[in-house]
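Below is just one:
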Amino acid sequence: MSDPTEANGTAGSAEAAGPAQEGGGPGRHVRVVLVDDHRMFRTGVQAEIGQTGQTGVEVVGEAADVDQAVTVITATRPEVVLLDVHLPGGGGVEVLRRCAPLMGDTEQPVRFLALSVSDAAEDVIGVIRGGARGYVTKTITGTDLVNSIFRVQEGDAVFSPRLAGFVLDAFASTDAPPVDEDLDRLTQREREVLRLIARGYAYKEIAKQLYISVKTVESHVSAVLRKLQLSNRHELTRWATARRLV
């Protein structure tokens, strides 16, 4: 893995189209950190939006897991962090929790924009509750992503169209949204393992993804099955799919 603070991308693109040419505008500038556990995706985003002279976006750091993210964000103090939801070490919500003081800085706030392949309601609502200013999916174009970054820098809330409905539904009333008591029994790490199991990952793949041992994965799966009163991974997959956790 490369140095997590490395900011220089290589050839590649997050979209089929060429690098974003618009969004920043003359004289506009924003410092950004990319947080995603897939190096090729980070490289693609860097190539897509990181040509500062054209987009106004300067990528000042990268990170692949929660600990790296907190270290790089604290060291570089970017205006905006592009944050993947599913990360080794506790996920995007854990990054938000540990960076809460930076988000609350009145003079130089660090703002977060979730950029994820997931469009699950739980993921969207979770990071927004954690303090993110928006949530867009990885199907977004380079130009739209640049525009979203600048809007978040300015304090706006930004969502991919259908995802905004999840947030409106969750916060439309003054009553607290219903709590899923079964899901609430699981730890953050158990939820990560649950999602990966439900997506069809093998134990070895989950261990590699989360930087833990296969034995630890097995222990988490056993704990999840016990807490949810399920018998096997097929029942677990159906349970997760029914709750749109996959």
Q: What stands out?
A: Residues 214-228 form the longest helix (15 residues).
